[in-house]
Design brief:
Radius of gyration: 19 Å
Distance between the termini: 39 Å
Strand content: 15-25%
Shape: globular
Number of strands: 13
Bound molecules: nicotinamide-adenine-dinucleotide
Structural class: alpha/beta
């Protein structure tokens, strides 16, 4: 297959591109090396791919339709749309930029897909779309009409634009709601990576709330399995699936696991709950299990030491949290 993969230089995108190239697909990556975190990190993410004749990177911005059009000059069999600005707190700081990239950018992509007759679209959504009134475990049937942050609102809007693409232009669309993804190359702003940096530099770990908030952490290879299944087993119509680890871990448990993997005692800096944050996330994954064969394999007690092993191989200086 020839797959267009937006956000290929990022955390999840670079892992997915490697998996697709390794099994013989051709990947056209698209990325603008957004300044949200340093380009040098994204260049490192691409190191293995740069040597592959199956991988090509087109540098461009989703917000410029002409850039997006360049990615589909040759016909593609599927489009996997991962490029986005991610994160709840940064979206509260820059809501308009998040809207431009995540909503207008997604619309640009859909329009080019329509013009080029693309049949298959996989869209990276987020557990953040579950908002006010959503009960754990989160189910795909939840109305998701009350997002708690601009990021969540943009991801839900992306799902709705993707529905248009199905309804009006007949594309087969799968939206995948990822639940906090971690593993090698995890974005440096996310809790596990950020806490590891703070442990390593002997700085205090900010603990928002009393430590009882919980997240459903999902190992990167499990997410890649789910995305590959969505590409391969395209179901006719419009589908939404949760991709989570399906186990909750509290913030206190997470800090304890990191502390023992790093061999360091944490200095805790207690802070109030953050606006826009959800108190807990947990995925119901039975739909993805039934229809995609999704089965997460790596639990947090195995995943954290694996993450730390990777983290400790990273070149210094590490990005400042
Ligand atoms: P990431 O920031 O590492 O990757 C996103 C990539 O998109 C980056 O390389 C960035 O340069 C690129 N990008 C941003 N703006 C762009 C633009 N205007 N034009 C072209 N490229 C642009 O993030 P990630 O963690 O790999 O996330 C990938 C996707 O998965 C995102 O859509 C994110 O919202 C979603 N997601 C991630 C998580 C998670 O825990 N990591 C959870 C839920 C959803």
């Amino acid at each position: 297959m020839r797959v267009l993969l937006t956000g290929a230089a990022g955390f999840i995108g670079s892992h997915l591109a490697e998996r697709l190239c390794a099994r013989g697909d051709t990947v056209v990556g698209f990325d603008n090396f957004d300044r949200f975190y340093p380009r040098a990190i994204k260049e490192r993410n691409l190191e293995a791919l740069r040597g592959s004749h199956r991988f090509q990177l087109i540098e461009g911005d989703l917000c410029r339709r002409a850039d997006v059009a360049r990615t589909m000059i040759e016909k593609v069999d599927a489009v996997v749309h991962l490029a986005a600005l991610a994160g709840v707190r940064p979206s509260i700081a820059e809501p308009a930029r998040f809207w431009d990239v995540n909503v207008t950018g997604t619309l640009n992509l859909v329009e080019v897909c329509r013009a080029r007759g693309v049949r298959r679209l996989v869209f990276a959504s987020s557990s953040s779309v579950y908002g006010d009134g959503s009960e754990v475990p989160f189910r795909e049937s939840d109305p998701c009409g009350r997002p708690l942050s601009p990021y969540a609102a943009t991801k839900r809007s992306g799902e709705l634009l993707a529905f248009n693409a199905h309804h009006l232009y007949g594309m087969d669309v799968t939206c995948l709601r990822f639940f906090t993804v971690y593993g090698p190359r995890q974005r440096p702003d996310l809790a596990i990576h950020r806490f590891a940096q703070l442990f390593a530099s002997g700085q205090p770990i900010p603990m928002f709330g009393d430590g009882s908030s919980s997240r459903d952490y999902t190992w990167i290879d499990d997410i890649v399995d789910g995305v590959v299944a969505a590409i391969d087993q395209v179901k006719p119509g419009y589908r939404i699936y949760n991709l989570g680890g399906s186990r909750p871990t509290s913030l206190s448990e997470l800090v304890d696991l990191l502390s023992s993997a790093m061999g360091k005692t944490p200095i805790i800096d207690r802070q109030p709950e953050q606006p826009g944050d959800m108190p807990r996330t947990l995925a119901e994954v039975s739909l993805a299990a039934r229809e995609l064969g999704y089965a997460p394999k790596v639990g947090i007690t195995e995943g954290i030491p694996r993450f730390v092993k990777w983290f400790l191989t990273q070149p210094l200086p590490r990005p400042t949290p």
